[in-house]
Design a protein that fits this description.
- With about 290 residues, the protein is of the alpha/beta class.
- It is about 30% helix and about 20% strand.
- The chain has two domains: about 5-160, 3-Layer(aba) Sandwich (Rossmann fold); about 165-275, 3-Layer(aba) Sandwich (Rossmann fold), CATH 3.40.50.180.
- The chain has a six-stranded mixed sheet with strand order 1-5-4-6-7-8, with helices on both faces. The protein has a four-stranded parallel sheet with strand order 9-10-12-11. Strands 2-3 form a two-stranded antiparallel ribbon.
- Helix 2 (about 60-70) runs parallel beside helix 3 (about 85-95) and helix 5 crosses helix 9 (about 225-235).
Length: about 290
Protein backbone atom coordinates (compact mmCIF):
# COMPACT_ATOMS: atom_id res chain seq x y z
CA UNK A 1 0.00 0.00 0.00
CA UNK A 2 1.16 3.58 -0.52
CA UNK A 3 3.15 5.17 2.26
CA UNK A 4 2.43 8.69 3.47
CA UNK A 5 5.49 10.01 5.22
CA UNK A 6 5.30 12.27 8.24
CA UNK A 7 6.95 15.55 7.36
CA UNK A 8 10.19 16.52 9.05
CA UNK A 9 10.01 19.43 11.42
CA UNK A 10 12.19 22.16 10.09
CA UNK A 11 12.21 25.89 9.99
CA UNK A 12 10.76 27.56 6.95
CA UNK A 13 13.40 29.21 4.81
CA UNK A 14 13.28 32.77 3.64
CA UNK A 15 13.62 33.48 -0.07
CA UNK A 16 15.62 36.66 -0.77
CA UNK A 17 13.82 39.48 -2.55
CA UNK A 18 10.40 37.91 -1.96
CA UNK A 19 7.94 38.89 0.73
CA UNK A 20 6.95 35.33 1.58
CA UNK A 21 8.23 32.25 3.30
CA UNK A 22 8.86 29.19 1.14
CA UNK A 23 8.05 25.72 2.42
CA UNK A 24 10.23 22.71 1.66
CA UNK A 25 9.98 20.91 -1.67
CA UNK A 26 7.51 18.04 -1.20
CA UNK A 27 8.39 14.92 -3.20
CA UNK A 28 6.57 11.70 -4.01
CA UNK A 29 8.92 8.75 -4.73
CA UNK A 30 7.53 6.08 -7.10
CA UNK A 31 9.44 2.81 -7.58
CA UNK A 32 8.46 -0.85 -7.43
CA UNK A 33 11.59 -1.67 -5.40
CA UNK A 34 11.32 -1.03 -1.66
CA UNK A 35 15.12 -0.74 -1.51
CA UNK A 36 15.13 1.90 -4.25
CA UNK A 37 12.34 3.86 -2.58
CA UNK A 38 14.31 3.81 0.65
CA UNK A 39 17.60 4.94 -0.88
CA UNK A 40 16.07 7.68 -2.99
CA UNK A 41 14.03 8.92 -0.02
CA UNK A 42 17.11 8.87 2.23
CA UNK A 43 19.18 10.98 -0.14
CA UNK A 44 16.40 13.48 -0.75
CA UNK A 45 15.51 13.79 2.94
CA UNK A 46 19.16 14.48 3.73
CA UNK A 47 18.74 17.89 2.13
CA UNK A 48 17.09 20.44 4.48
CA UNK A 49 15.04 21.92 1.62
CA UNK A 50 13.39 18.63 0.56
CA UNK A 51 10.74 16.46 2.22
CA UNK A 52 9.71 13.07 0.84
CA UNK A 53 6.02 13.13 1.80
CA UNK A 54 5.00 9.82 0.28
CA UNK A 55 6.04 6.73 -1.68
CA UNK A 56 4.26 4.36 -4.05
CA UNK A 57 5.22 0.96 -5.48
CA UNK A 58 3.30 1.17 -8.78
CA UNK A 59 1.60 3.64 -11.07
CA UNK A 60 -1.89 3.17 -9.71
CA UNK A 61 -0.74 3.91 -6.16
CA UNK A 62 1.22 6.89 -7.47
CA UNK A 63 -1.89 8.41 -9.01
CA UNK A 64 -3.87 7.96 -5.79
CA UNK A 65 -1.12 9.41 -3.58
CA UNK A 66 -0.41 12.30 -5.95
CA UNK A 67 -4.10 13.20 -5.94
CA UNK A 68 -4.14 13.19 -2.14
CA UNK A 69 -0.82 14.92 -1.42
CA UNK A 70 -0.36 17.17 -4.45
CA UNK A 71 3.48 17.02 -4.27
CA UNK A 72 5.79 19.60 -5.80
CA UNK A 73 7.62 16.88 -7.75
CA UNK A 74 7.42 13.14 -8.45
CA UNK A 75 10.38 10.82 -9.06
CA UNK A 76 9.12 8.12 -11.41
CA UNK A 77 10.43 4.64 -12.20
CA UNK A 78 9.50 3.21 -15.62
CA UNK A 79 9.30 -0.57 -15.23
CA UNK A 80 6.58 -1.22 -12.63
CA UNK A 81 3.65 -3.64 -12.19
CA UNK A 82 -0.05 -2.70 -12.41
CA UNK A 83 0.70 0.55 -14.31
CA UNK A 84 4.13 1.41 -15.67
CA UNK A 85 5.84 4.78 -15.46
CA UNK A 86 4.90 5.85 -18.99
CA UNK A 87 1.17 5.31 -18.50
CA UNK A 88 1.36 6.89 -15.05
CA UNK A 89 3.18 9.96 -16.36
CA UNK A 90 0.62 10.39 -19.14
CA UNK A 91 -2.29 10.15 -16.68
CA UNK A 92 -0.80 12.54 -14.11
CA UNK A 93 0.15 15.13 -16.72
CA UNK A 94 -3.35 14.97 -18.20
CA UNK A 95 -5.31 15.23 -14.95
CA UNK A 96 -3.01 16.66 -12.29
CA UNK A 97 0.05 18.23 -13.94
CA UNK A 98 3.09 17.84 -11.65
CA UNK A 99 6.83 18.10 -12.40
CA UNK A 100 8.11 14.55 -12.99
CA UNK A 101 11.72 13.35 -12.92
CA UNK A 102 12.19 9.86 -14.33
CA UNK A 103 14.69 7.86 -12.23
CA UNK A 104 15.09 4.42 -13.78
CA UNK A 105 17.65 1.74 -14.53
CA UNK A 106 16.17 1.59 -18.04
CA UNK A 107 17.17 5.15 -18.87
CA UNK A 108 20.43 4.08 -20.53
CA UNK A 109 19.65 0.50 -21.55
CA UNK A 110 16.43 1.56 -23.30
CA UNK A 111 17.04 5.25 -23.78
CA UNK A 112 14.00 5.69 -26.03
CA UNK A 113 11.75 5.06 -23.03
CA UNK A 114 13.19 8.08 -21.23
CA UNK A 115 12.48 10.36 -24.17
CA UNK A 116 9.05 8.79 -24.59
CA UNK A 117 8.33 9.75 -20.97
CA UNK A 118 9.39 13.33 -21.76
CA UNK A 119 7.05 13.45 -24.74
CA UNK A 120 4.27 12.48 -22.33
CA UNK A 121 5.15 15.31 -19.94
CA UNK A 122 8.12 14.29 -17.76
CA UNK A 123 10.66 17.09 -17.46
CA UNK A 124 13.89 15.08 -17.32
CA UNK A 125 15.38 11.64 -16.74
CA UNK A 126 18.38 10.21 -14.96
CA UNK A 127 19.88 6.76 -14.60
CA UNK A 128 19.19 4.93 -11.36
CA UNK A 129 22.58 3.55 -10.31
CA UNK A 130 22.96 0.10 -8.80
CA UNK A 131 22.38 0.28 -5.07
CA UNK A 132 26.02 -0.58 -4.38
CA UNK A 133 27.10 2.20 -6.76
CA UNK A 134 24.88 5.06 -5.56
CA UNK A 135 27.65 7.57 -4.84
CA UNK A 136 27.62 10.98 -3.21
CA UNK A 137 27.89 12.43 -6.73
CA UNK A 138 24.73 10.58 -7.80
CA UNK A 139 22.92 11.77 -4.70
CA UNK A 140 24.02 15.35 -5.35
CA UNK A 141 22.81 15.19 -8.95
CA UNK A 142 19.45 13.80 -7.82
CA UNK A 143 19.00 16.59 -5.28
CA UNK A 144 20.07 19.23 -7.81
CA UNK A 145 17.56 18.04 -10.40
CA UNK A 146 14.74 17.81 -7.87
CA UNK A 147 15.35 21.37 -6.66
CA UNK A 148 15.54 22.77 -10.18
CA UNK A 149 12.64 20.86 -11.73
CA UNK A 150 10.28 21.45 -8.82
CA UNK A 151 10.29 25.13 -9.78
CA UNK A 152 9.34 24.51 -13.43
CA UNK A 153 5.71 25.43 -14.25
CA UNK A 154 3.86 22.56 -15.92
CA UNK A 155 0.59 22.50 -17.81
CA UNK A 156 -1.98 19.89 -18.77
CA UNK A 157 -0.32 17.61 -21.31
CA UNK A 158 -2.83 15.73 -23.46
CA UNK A 159 -0.93 13.94 -26.21
CA UNK A 160 -4.05 13.58 -28.31
CA UNK A 161 -4.51 17.35 -28.36
CA UNK A 162 -0.99 18.12 -29.47
CA UNK A 163 -1.10 20.83 -32.09
CA UNK A 164 -0.83 19.39 -35.59
CA UNK A 165 2.45 20.33 -37.17
CA UNK A 166 2.14 22.15 -40.46
CA UNK A 167 4.42 21.44 -43.38
CA UNK A 168 3.14 24.09 -45.76
CA UNK A 169 5.95 26.33 -47.08
CA UNK A 170 4.10 29.51 -46.15
CA UNK A 171 4.29 28.71 -42.43
CA UNK A 172 8.00 29.48 -42.46
CA UNK A 173 7.04 33.13 -42.46
CA UNK A 174 5.73 32.68 -38.91
CA UNK A 175 9.29 32.12 -37.74
CA UNK A 176 11.60 34.21 -39.90
CA UNK A 177 10.56 37.22 -41.94
CA UNK A 178 12.02 37.83 -45.39
CA UNK A 179 13.93 40.86 -44.15
CA UNK A 180 15.77 38.74 -41.58
CA UNK A 181 16.65 35.72 -43.70
CA UNK A 182 19.76 37.23 -45.22
CA UNK A 183 21.19 38.37 -41.88
CA UNK A 184 20.50 35.40 -39.62
CA UNK A 185 21.01 31.93 -41.02
CA UNK A 186 21.67 30.05 -37.78
CA UNK A 187 19.59 29.59 -34.65
CA UNK A 188 21.73 28.57 -31.66
CA UNK A 189 20.12 26.84 -28.68
CA UNK A 190 21.72 26.03 -25.34
CA UNK A 191 19.86 23.85 -22.83
CA UNK A 192 20.52 21.87 -19.67
CA UNK A 193 18.26 20.14 -17.13
CA UNK A 194 14.78 19.87 -18.61
CA UNK A 195 16.19 20.71 -22.03
CA UNK A 196 15.17 17.57 -23.94
CA UNK A 197 11.49 18.23 -23.39
CA UNK A 198 11.91 21.91 -24.34
CA UNK A 199 13.80 20.91 -27.50
CA UNK A 200 11.03 18.46 -28.36
CA UNK A 201 8.43 21.19 -27.97
CA UNK A 202 10.34 23.71 -30.10
CA UNK A 203 11.52 21.41 -32.87
CA UNK A 204 8.26 19.49 -33.26
CA UNK A 205 6.49 22.71 -34.21
CA UNK A 206 8.94 23.83 -36.90
CA UNK A 207 8.08 23.25 -40.57
CA UNK A 208 10.29 21.03 -42.71
CA UNK A 209 11.36 24.05 -44.77
CA UNK A 210 12.46 26.13 -41.78
CA UNK A 211 14.80 28.65 -43.45
CA UNK A 212 17.66 28.52 -40.93
CA UNK A 213 20.09 25.91 -39.70
CA UNK A 214 19.92 25.11 -35.99
CA UNK A 215 22.84 24.31 -33.70
CA UNK A 216 22.13 22.83 -30.27
CA UNK A 217 24.26 22.32 -27.18
CA UNK A 218 22.46 20.14 -24.63
CA UNK A 219 24.10 19.23 -21.33
CA UNK A 220 23.39 15.51 -21.14
CA UNK A 221 24.88 12.40 -19.57
CA UNK A 222 27.23 10.17 -21.51
CA UNK A 223 25.37 7.67 -23.68
CA UNK A 224 22.21 9.78 -24.06
CA UNK A 225 23.06 11.92 -27.09
CA UNK A 226 22.34 9.32 -29.78
CA UNK A 227 19.00 8.46 -28.20
CA UNK A 228 18.08 12.14 -27.94
CA UNK A 229 18.96 12.68 -31.61
CA UNK A 230 16.93 9.66 -32.76
CA UNK A 231 13.90 10.73 -30.70
CA UNK A 232 13.94 14.35 -31.87
CA UNK A 233 14.48 13.34 -35.50
CA UNK A 234 11.54 10.94 -35.34
CA UNK A 235 9.18 13.51 -33.78
CA UNK A 236 10.16 16.55 -35.88
CA UNK A 237 9.63 17.71 -39.45
CA UNK A 238 13.15 19.14 -39.56
CA UNK A 239 16.11 16.77 -39.83
CA UNK A 240 18.01 16.20 -36.58
CA UNK A 241 21.50 14.69 -36.45
CA UNK A 242 24.52 14.51 -34.17
CA UNK A 243 27.07 17.05 -35.35
CA UNK A 244 30.28 15.84 -36.98
CA UNK A 245 33.48 17.68 -37.80
CA UNK A 246 33.06 19.92 -40.89
CA UNK A 247 29.27 19.48 -41.09
CA UNK A 248 27.75 22.46 -42.89
CA UNK A 249 24.93 24.54 -41.45
CA UNK A 250 21.89 23.99 -43.68
CA UNK A 251 18.30 25.24 -43.56
CA UNK A 252 15.95 22.80 -41.86
CA UNK A 253 18.77 20.76 -40.33
CA UNK A 254 19.41 20.56 -36.57
CA UNK A 255 22.96 19.73 -35.46
CA UNK A 256 23.33 18.57 -31.84
CA UNK A 257 26.76 18.73 -30.22
CA UNK A 258 28.17 15.29 -29.37
CA UNK A 259 28.90 14.41 -25.75
CA UNK A 260 32.23 15.69 -24.39
CA UNK A 261 33.00 17.94 -27.38
CA UNK A 262 32.70 21.71 -27.61
CA UNK A 263 31.01 22.80 -30.84
CA UNK A 264 31.78 25.95 -32.82
CA UNK A 265 30.60 27.39 -36.12
CA UNK A 266 33.47 28.76 -38.19
CA UNK A 267 33.86 30.53 -41.51
CA UNK A 268 31.70 29.09 -44.25
CA UNK A 269 29.13 27.83 -41.77
CA UNK A 270 31.16 24.72 -40.93
CA UNK A 271 31.14 22.83 -37.62
CA UNK A 272 34.33 22.54 -35.61
CA UNK A 273 34.56 20.17 -32.65
CA UNK A 274 37.23 20.31 -29.98
CA UNK A 275 38.10 19.06 -26.51
CA UNK A 276 39.16 22.31 -24.92
CA UNK A 277 38.75 22.58 -21.15
CA UNK A 278 35.16 22.38 -19.85
CA UNK A 279 33.43 25.70 -19.16
CA UNK A 280 31.98 25.73 -15.63
CA UNK A 281 32.14 21.95 -15.68
CA UNK A 282 30.41 21.54 -19.03
CA UNK A 283 31.67 20.14 -22.32
CA UNK A 284 29.95 20.85 -24.65
CA UNK A 285 29.27 24.40 -23.48
CA UNK A 286 26.74 26.84 -24.92
CA UNK A 287 29.23 29.61 -24.13
CA UNK A 288 31.62 28.20 -26.73
CA UNK A 289 28.84 27.88 -29.31
Amino acid sequence: MPVLVKKKKKADREIPFKNKVAMSIQVLVVDDSAVARGIISKFLNSDPDIDVVGTAKDGREAIDVATQLKPDLITMDINMPVMDGLATTEHIMAYQPTPILVVSSLVKSEVDLAFRAMSLGALDAMEKPGFDQFSAKDAGELVRKVKLLSQVPVVTHLEGKRRTRSTEPSTAQDYVSSSVKAEFQVVAIGSSTGGPKALYKVLSELPADFPCGIAVVQHISEGFTSGLVEWLDRTSNVKVKEAEESDKIQPGVVLIAPHDFHMMIVSGGRIRLNKALPIKGHRPSATIL
